[in-house]
Amino acid sequence: MLKLIPGTKLKTTQTALLLILGGTLLFTLPACSSTPMPPTQNLQAAELAITKAEQARVADYASVELNQAREKLAAAHTAVHNEKMEQARQLADESRVSAELASAKAEVVKAKAVNDEMQKSIDTLKQEMQRNTGTVQ
User: Fold this and answer.
1) Is the pTM of this model over 0.90?
2) b/e string for 57-75 if b means 16 or more Cβ within 10 A?
């Protein structure tokens, strides 16, 4: 017989049941708490960045980066399905950054086009001034 609390006695069967119950709890409680929550905010941020890039027609200027963002987002969803939440969080963050990079590259290309157009206009104005005044500026 086993004495757990002074003044009480447990039979062998009761002791075995308590040990089994305690062992079961010992192994099941960590299993319940070991699966972290899906990185919902990270996934939503990546989806939003991709949507904004698509609306800004970024694919016309930075399709490689935008495709990488889409692929990483799909991989992040797969990781969530496979309960690999840390990997899913990292892939979602990489997806968001790729989409933002695509947007930034597209903005650079657009700004360069505007700059080139303005330079052509300046050159045209200079030529007109030279023709009208007969001098070189």
Assistant:
1) no
2) ebeebbeebbebbbebbeb
